[in-house]
Amino acid sequence: MDFFESQDTAKRSTGRLIFLFVLAVFSLIVVTNLLVMLIFGFLGTEMTSMAATQSFQFDWEIFFAVGAVVSGVVLIGSLYKIGSLSGGGARVAEMMNGRLLIAGTDNFKAQRTLNVVEEMAIASGTPVPPVYIMEEEGINAFAAGYSPSDAVIGITRGAIENLNRDELQGVIAHEFSHILHGDMRINIRLIGVLHGIMVLGLIGYHLLRSSSYSRRSKESGGIVALGLGLIIVGWVGTFFGNLIKAAVSRQREYLADASAVQFTRNPDGIAGALMRIAQHAERSFLDHPNSSEISHALFEEAKFSPLSGLYATHPPLEERISAILPNWDGSYELIAQVEDAVPVQEQTRDAEQSRPAKLTAVLTGTAGVIVADSVISDVGSPTRDHIAVAENLRNSLPKELLDAAHDPSGARAIIYLLVLSDSDPTRRRQLNLLENNADEGVYKEVELILKNNKQIDAVLRIPLVEIALSSLRQLSQRQYQLFKNNFNELIALDKKINLLEWALQKNVFHHLDSVFTKNKKPKMGRKELKNCETSASILLTIIAHSNKHNKLTVQKVFAKGTEQLPMKPALASVDELTFEKLNSALIELVQVKPLQKPALLKACAASITADNKIAPIEAELLRAIAATLDCPMPPLLQCQS
Predict the structure, then answer these.
(1) For 586-625, how does the pLDDT look when each residue is reduced to its tens digit (9 = 90+)?
(2) In this structure, are strands 152-156 and 359-360 parallel, antiparallel, or unpaired?
């Protein structure tokens, strides 16, 4: 399944989840009505044979009243829980007492984990997710958030300490599959749904407690019975909720395992991690009381249950290993073979700051449309080649830039640095603005970076930004607003904005606004691409004018793009184009249905590759457009001999 199919499936899964939720709530209404009639029919009156007969006369008014109360309680409970997680993945990590893992730690294995996450993020074209460590002995992990913009990776101490690099990479690749394919949003909604159903049981528990303090036992008898009844209703609801959770979750785990193999081209990595869990004393089990709430989001089961065969959120370990290694004979020799795997080699590998690579992040080809097809097929589906390039790009970053990107002040300085003008008068004004307006310490970071790096290599701009985004998420609301205002003033000082500045602006603030702005969560599109002709025209016109194309006119470049569309937009007048119009066009285009976005991205890629090459500005522009459309694009590759 490719990225766009996964997005469409995730949208349909959400609809199916809502349908199952409605069925579960209706069942709770029926059961609660039966309890009300039973309790207040038998216990609330002096019982005679006539009273017993009258107590079971069906009353629609009571049914609807109870239904309204039950529905309201469940809905409010669900919305409350989902609202409490509106901060994205970080809220889920905090719910599990996760501790943010900071780069530069002296713990080699913890730093290796951060390196692997950064490489996977650069390879997949997403912001680097913050990593939270859970102090648990079991080997487990999770990805949480509403989108790649606010995603986090949670991982246990047991996983960090017991997995080798390949196994760790397999686990992280599995979690990135959930990030890329829309599973996280469903997982958060499942947490909310189950909490809403469980609220009835909690109300019953509190009714029982309150009744124990009542001195008038005759009046409290009905309350006790109602409390017990609600506890039963809550348990039944949670039971069926877990069945729903298992039904939604299991198949996605097989897909995430398959994606991890596709990403890494190393089935032994994730298979070895699963074998390691099977042989580990604590397996994948977690002690935290909230682990059951996020069990469907974890890499493997959080607890053992005698009913696990019925509502386990993950397939059995042996079945997962067999699906990854079809010829597996049931032995665990694989982890024995890698037991002596080269901690020294691993340390050397992760300590390298640069090394030659056979692949670079520049795209060329013999036919623009064929290259465009290749580019789009990679969206949301990074390969081993992309990971190799990502590792090389990360290791090619100067140490002072990498260290700065890992620090909130340094990350702001790097983003500011990327829009500083080459013209001395304008640059001096920009630096004066930062000296007077930036938060304390940020301007000094700018000066320090400028002293050692007069210019940042174009191919390193995007990976540097992707790493910096993780650190920028640590800003306070006030710091973020000041950072955003300063950035906008920096690019407005020369009273013009170029495409490189616009691309950086879209890439950075599209992701950060999802974290810092309320109600900015991405939604699955429902628009037809053919109804967005004007917006497509504006986008392709700006791309056609973005760079000089060898021996090709603007009209021919534009035409290359429109060949991929279900409509034929006309070339817009360049005099009428503004960045405001481009932003408005993208706001509309992001609402296009998932399965129709490939045609739009292919049109952009076909225009950019019309002359069979991509300049760095074009690569950055294409990836900014893809990010704005919520289609993470891996680095663009060129094979070298």
Answers:
(1) 889 988 888 888 888 888 888 888 887 777 778 788 888 8
(2) unpaired
> To which residue do tokens 């039950």 refer?
70
CB 149 within 8 A of CB 517: no
pTM: 0.82
The model's pLDDT over 608-619, given as tens digits with 9 standing for 90+, comes to 888 877 777 787
Among left, alpha and beta (phi > 0; psi -120 to 50; other), residue 421 is: beta
Other CB atoms within 10 Å distance of the CB of residue 79: 13
Domains and CATH numbers, the chain: 3-87+190-240 (no CATH), 91-186+256-338 (3.30.2010.10), 360-382+523-639 (no CATH), 396-516 (no CATH)
Residue with structure tokens 């990590």?
A: 93
| Cα 395 to Cα 388: distance, rounded to the nearest angstrom | 11
> What is the Cα–Cα distance from 133 to 114, expressed in whole angstroms?
11
Q: Active site residue: 136, 167, 175, 391, which one?
A: 175
Query: 175 catalytic, yes or no?
Result: yes
- Which residue shows structure tokens 């609220």? 199
pLDDT digits (tens, 9 = 90+) for 243-301: 777 777 777 888 888 888 888 888 999 999 999 999 998 999 999 988 888 888 899 98
